[in-house]
Write a structure and sequence with these properties.
There is one protein chain. By secondary structure, this protein is α/β, with parallel strands linked by helices. The chain has one domain: 3-Layer(aba) Sandwich (Rossmann fold). The protein has seven helices and eleven strands. Strands 1-11-10-9-6-7-8 form a seven-stranded mixed sheet, with helices on both faces. It has a two-stranded antiparallel sheet with strand order 2-5. The radius of gyration is 17 Å and the shape is globular. The chain starts with a strand and ends in a 7-residue tail after the last helix. The relative contact order is 0.19.
Length: about 220
């Protein structure tokens, strides 16, 4: 049965949003626009790899994700990161839990052993997938598909942040995969508004973008 638990804890969601804004891992530019690789224009840009440069923040994320893993699934056999953005945070979570780590490439390598899964994965292992960011969910679900083809049992996906797009909900529902995130777009806007990081006008712009991101143009 599909369950999409966008945030497990509101306080954690707002704290995560606060930290991501603080170090500009998430940038909000309502009066400008970022160009995504997909071609979408956006007033927000998220690069959670920035957190790796801040020891206290990466420790917070590592501990909170590890806690979620245990609360929801118990101790897994393996943690899997989705290449490339979630490799580092996945390693940190695996280290926190004391379990093996693997990562999944978008496609198999064209040389050497032509691996798509890097690391040792025993058949039938219980795996929790770690992601840094959820947009449409396609790369995350591709990793789940690859892992399932090895006879691993994917318990679910835990990510740092999601934009909360309808298309992502639809994709996870169709794949029957559970998603949990530390924070999401709603918590981000609430935190940014509460701390006067953005104005009411900015808030309206940011809300309108999320309703139709593929057609938005500042």
């Amino acid at each position: 049965m599909y369950i999409c638990v966008m945030i497990e804890n509101k306080d954690t969601a707002k704290k995560t949003a606060e930290l991501l804004l603080q170090i500009k891992a998430i940038k909000l530019e309502p009066n400008k626009s970022f160009n995504w690789a997909s071609g979408w224009k956006s007033p927000i840009y998220c690069d959670n790899r920035t957190t790796l440069s801040f020891p206290k923040i990466r420790t917070f994320l590592r501990q909170e994700i590890a806690k979620l893993v245990i609360e929801k699934y118990g101790k897994p056999d393996v943690i899997a990161g989705v290449a490339t953005g979630a490799i580092a945070i996945g390693v940190l979570v695996a280290e926190e839990l004391g379990v093996p780590f693997i990562y999944v490439r978008p496609k198999a390598k064209k040389h050497g052993r032509q691996n798509q899964i890097e690391g040792f994965l025993e058949s039938g292992s219980n795996v929790v997938v770690i992601e840094d960011l959820i947009s449409t969910g396609k790369s995350s679900l591709n990793a789940v598909k690859v892992l399932n083809e090895t006879s691993a049992t994917v318990k679910g996906i835990i990510a740092i942040f999601t934009y909360g797009f309808d298309i992502a909900d639809e994709n996870f529902e169709k794949a029957n995969v559970e998603l949990t995130t530390l924070s999401n777009y709603d918590a981000l806007l609430e935190q940014a508004s509460d701390t006067n990081y953005i104005s009411k006008k900015d808030l309206a712009t940011l809300n309108s973008w999320r309703k139709n991101p593929s057609e938005w143009n500042q």
